[in-house]
Amino acid sequence: MRTEGVLAGLDPEQRTAVTAPAGPVCILAGAGTGKTRAITHRIAYRTLSGEISPRHVLAVTFTARAAAEMRARLTALGTAGVQARTFHAAALRQVRYFAPRLLEGRQMPELMESKVRVVGLAAAKAGLRTDRAAARDLAGEIEWAKSSLVEPGEYLVAAAKAMREPPFEPARVAEVFAAYESLKRRQGVIDFEDMLRAAVWGIEEHPDVAEQIRAQYRHFVVDEYQDVNPLQQRLLGAWLGGRDDLTVVGDASQTIYSFTGATSAYLIDFPRQRRDAVVVRLVRDYRSTPQVVGLANAVIRQARGTEAKLRLELVGQRPPGPEPELKIFPDEPGEAVAVARRCRELIAAGTPASEIAVLFRTNAQSEAYEEALAEAEVPYVVRGAERFFERAEVRQAMVALRAAVRSVPGETPLVEAVVEALAATGWNRSQPPPGGAAREQWEALAALVTLAEEYAAEPEILPIGEAGRIQRDVSLSTFNDELARRAEQQHAPTVAGVTLASLHSAKGLEWDAVFLVGLADGTLPTTYAKTAEQLEEERRLLYVGVTRARHLLWLSYGQSRAPGGRARRPCRFLPQLERSTSRERTPVDGSRKPDRRPIRVSSCRICGATLLAGADRKLGRCPTCPSDLDEDLHERLQVWRASTAAELKVPAYVVFTDATLVAVAERRPTGPAELLAIAGIGPRKLGQYGDAVFALVAGASPDDLAPKNFGN
User: Fold this and answer.
1) Could you tell me which residues are annotated as the binding site?
2) 161: how many CB neighbours lie within 10 A of its CB?
């Protein structure tokens, strides 16, 4: 393929990135703007033109999947031989190759797949009792420290400066960190951060190794540059050795892994650190409809902080699609049932199940959707986490609940019995623990309590003949049977199905239809986000979720976690859901319009969801809920509207819009209050047309209504 073929089909900004001269190039690429296309075509253009050799290129990304995709695209472009690897894979390859020289003939130490086992031993040595979740959190904290180039003796100061919330007292974490490093040395093993450090050490301390590596790799490309951590940046600097043939691509608005040590600072500072850098902004979004793009822009436009300096305003390139569906439900179970029903409808209408995703803030939220989809007979797959009932803490809790049947008095209310049984395992309802994994485990058990609340709140009433009715047994024993039923149902094998995933694990993926659920303050943003920086990262999480959708986007939350529970506020990052204090409302298209009028909240008369779109409020139902249109009345209303408009010499819509006619034909108002309940009809139109509408609803013919009865 000649260079002309490589340039064919590129938009002007992509072409600028591809043809930029050798040297530092920074591509700021918004979601769906073709960043992989830009960097692979840049490599192909430079190699096919003879400017560089493929074997001298190292392209680095963060996942094996992304690296494989890059290699496949480069091969299709006629550029074989380029090394496209993750940071870890590239470092491992180099350390293994140079190990005999660096280690004076000794073999490279074994690479641990996981820190958790050794961290657990280190914690015990430091006098800390930990379960697996606490060990995972300690391992995560040690990984952050090592990725941030922090040594055990420096941890206390570094953690305080970074405002970390470690799972134990910082001084105890520092002890575990030191013990972990000592145990590794004694066992002759290394972790992934050690391997990256070994690669850095090999280059920085061994001139012959540095010379050989730098002779091999002369041109560098780094994907997702907003996700690099200080250790990876140190390795990149060692590879470069002061040279500047570096292309980086990233999007500061998709920085969502700072808790692991990743920082967008290197992307933000790139133009300042390299004054001659070419900076290209890719803003044409080829993934999503203009409606989805408009919402994404509206969400991120409110961003503050350093990342907001590189905020991109995306421009949708696809044909128009449906407006995002914004729904509020009385509670989370109702939300899950509605989502499952809509998924089933989409699949029945021809959308492949694999092109639908339900995305949430934490993995603990998946249970309600696993259950609802299973009940609706919709296949699903859980990405990046175990199914709810397969999690170790849930299995252990179910064992404890079964054992509690023998020890808890039979008259104990169900929810109280469940809380008491879980407390015996060390779970404390009022004290969520610090640390991500421990918190996730706590929330999974809290979800079991929520299930108990639902089970107890809506007992089924069974008829027992003429004598009366009897309430269903809601004892701990029957609740255990219900949990067993759910677990068995959700263990059924699935093939390609609706994806259930957390927002973090959804990054880099896309679907035709995306359901963003649980958008309530306290869930998104999480209650654990306290600083301005943490809250901004939560906003970016929502932005990432919105930009996963190609065509259909549903956003929703339950006003309470369980039926009858405490009401919650909607996610503060959604301009469409702002209510009480804002003097401006930001529509889906992202434009700002003053609106001081109170917003009347109405609910679907069929499913109960809160209606936010004007046409939906007018109809009094969701567009997906079944219509009960009186077709004869609708036809008579149309005839009446036409004659009325002709008499008044105005367009027909000035009398009533099409949506208003449908609403009247569906709701059939018989009095002023019922007519005024239809959105868009006020006292003026009631006075003008009310009598005629009531007559038509009662069965009158348009011919029977004289013009003088229409009002003027």
Assistant:
1) 29-36
2) 9
Judge contact between 111 and 93, C-beta under 8 A: no
CA distance 525 to 659: 36
- Rounded mean pLDDT of 525-538? 89
CATH number where 148 lies? 1.10.10
Q: Residue ranges of the alpha helices (H) in 148-259?
A: 155-161, 170-187, 192-205, 207-216, 230-240
In a domain, 26, yes or no: yes
Asked if the peptide bond before residue 525 counts as cis, ω within 30 degrees of 0, the response is: yes
CA angle 522, 523, 524 (to 5 degrees): 100
pLDDT tens readout for residues 135-185: 988 999 999 999 999 999 999 999 999 989 898 999 999 999 999 999 999
Q: What's the CATH number where 618 sits?
A: 1.10.150.80
Predicted pLDDT of residue 293? 93
- In 9-115, where does DSSP find H-type helix? 12-19, 35-48, 64-76, 87-102
Residue 620 counted as domain residue: yes
Judged on CB neighbours under 10 Å (0-12, 13-18, 19+), 394 is buried
CB of 592 closer than 8 Å to CB of 610: no
State whether residue 516 is helix, strand or coil. strand
Same domain? For 37 and 121 the reply is: no
Q: Say if residues 220 and 236 touch (Cβ distance below 8 Å).
A: yes
Say if 440 falls within a structural domain. yes
Same-domain status, 277 and 313: no
**pTM (whole model) above 0.85:** no
Tokens 């809506």 correspond to 458
Residues 509 and 541 in one domain: yes
> How many secondary structure helices (H) and strands (E) does the chain include?
28, 22
Both 626 and 513 in a single domain? no
Domain ends where: 145, 162, 190?
Answer: 190
Beta strands in 263-413 (DSSP E): 278-282, 284-285, 315-316, 325-331, 356-360, 380-383
The DSSP result for 318-356, as a single string, is SPP-PPPEEEEEEEHHHHHHHHHHHHHHHHHTT--GGGE
Q: Whole domain around residue 466: which residue ranges?
A: 389-489
Instruction: Quote the number of domains for the chain.
Output: 5
Whole-angstrom CA distances from 257 to 144, 226, 539, 544, 663 are 11, 9, 13, 12, 47
600 in a domain, yes or no?
Answer: no
pLDDT tier at 30, thresholds 50, 70, 90: very high
Asked if 629 and 647 sit in the same domain, the reply is yes
In single-letter form, the type of residue at position 496 comes to: A
Q: Tell me the residue ranges of DSSP E strands in 527-681.
A: 549-560, 584-585, 593-594, 602-603, 610-611
Together in a domain, 450 and 470: yes
202 lies in the same domain as 90: yes
Query: Residues 243-294: pLDDT tens digits?
Result: 999 999 999 999 999 988 999 999 999 999 998 999 999 999 999 999 999 9
The binding site for ATP consists of 29-36
Domain termination residue (choose one: 165, 190, 215):
190
Which residues, in sequence order, are CB contacts of 563 under 8 Å at separation 6+?
330, 331, 333, 334, 453, 454, 457, 458
Q: Helical H runs in 103-191?
A: 116-125, 132-147, 155-161, 170-187
Phi-psi region of 508 (alpha: psi -120 to 50; beta: other; left: phi over 0): left
Indicate if 505 and 637 belong to the same structural domain.
no
Per the CB < 8 A criterion, the answer to whether 697 and 669 are in contact is yes
